[in-house]
Amino acid sequence: YRTGEPSISEQHIRRLLSTLQIDAEIQDADDFLYVHHEAHVIELCTGPHTGYLRYSEDDKLDLQRPAQNLPSEKEAIDRASQLLVELGLMPDAVPTPQTDYFRWGVIDGNGEWVKQGTSALVVGFVFQVGEYRFIGPGAKAGVVFGENGQVVAVSRIWREIEPDREAPIHQMDKALGLFKEYWPPEADQDALSRAEVLTTVQVEDVYLAYFAEPGMVPQPQIEPVYVFEGTSTVRSQGEEGAIRDSDRFHIVVPALIDR
Fold it and tell me: 159, 153, 121: which is closest to 140 by C-alpha?
């Protein structure tokens, strides 16, 4: 896909200010428009081949205590979808909602949690065009709900796209070879053997997707990638016995042959 000029503009900031009842002036700086008013921060980028809007009420977003009366996940998803549509910030693509939480905590001198809790509920939307997902930091929209269900953050990072051209992609065996090359480098294999360290990699899913760069980065074309997901397990022999540690991985490799 090739990317075009951003569709977001100053009117989206004005609509956001009106919806959230914020009385503030919009400042202009090259390809950026921004608002700084008390704890409210809005930033809009209208540079070529990109485009994003971010809003946050920083003191409530960084609440260092449990938030009271957070909405249910279902209510939050419904409200977030409705708000983004009303603000004109929902991309013309198929959205899939995801939820998460802002968590905080206090650790004592012994490394033990003495206080912890949930301070906000995050609803994020990832998008699909045709049969393929768009992944990466430059393809998402979201709303954060704080105490009593108040909107404390809104974001939309998306490039306007249109079909560009067809191009050949790697077969799966070549993609697997690239995955092995992209795997995080480890210590020398002889050193690992002497230390009796063994890493096992289990690939659980492989799929094609399109990768969008961060919103600050101009991206004239959005290209396909292979995404490998699974679990890596490290086993080693320590002084106190066997050690085993497992981590999830998400590794992206280029799919186009000419890359």
Answer: 159
